Here is the input.
Amino acid sequence: MTELEKMLKGKIYDPSDSTLDFQRKKAHRLSKDYNDTYDDEDKKRFEIMKELIPDMGKGTYIQGPIQVDYGINTKFGENCYANFNLVILDTCPVTIGNNVFFGPNCTLATPIHPLLPEERKMKYKEDGTAYDLEYAKPITIEDDCWIASNVTICGGVKISKGAVIGAGSVVTKDIPEGVFAAGNPCRVIRKITKSDSINLKSELF
Here is the structure.
């Protein structure tokens, strides 16, 4: 089994592997290229993003800046939107459904490092190459979710259809369908109902 296969299956892997190192550096360069463009450079942005995150649905727009670890391990559905400073550490698959919105400064972090310091610290191969031991768990965000500003989603989490995650939350466990959840750690606050309609809210102003 290759280091890439180990990584994607959530097994302990060696991130210094040459294939992984090449893809990370490529994704980091493409992220910077995208971040250096202007909003009206649509064609240039499209070409960069097509290479950075090839599996992206129609109508999805990433404002940028963006930073991804691999890109090729991330999938966006259609008509998604991400505001400023989206970070995706996709050492395991990150799957995002249709019509998912991200506020600014959101992080999707699949990697998991050891809790024991002797296992976490850097190690060195005979040739001097530094590496560490780590693994990852996938992240899934289903259709019609809104991830508000400054949310961190940890590896292994599934956010089910239509859920809203409140600003500043740290999501460490699965979130069920159609709820508003918030906090650190994030927890379900209540169900979302028809009384949450924007038309009713606008009557307050």
Summary: The mean pLDDT is 96.
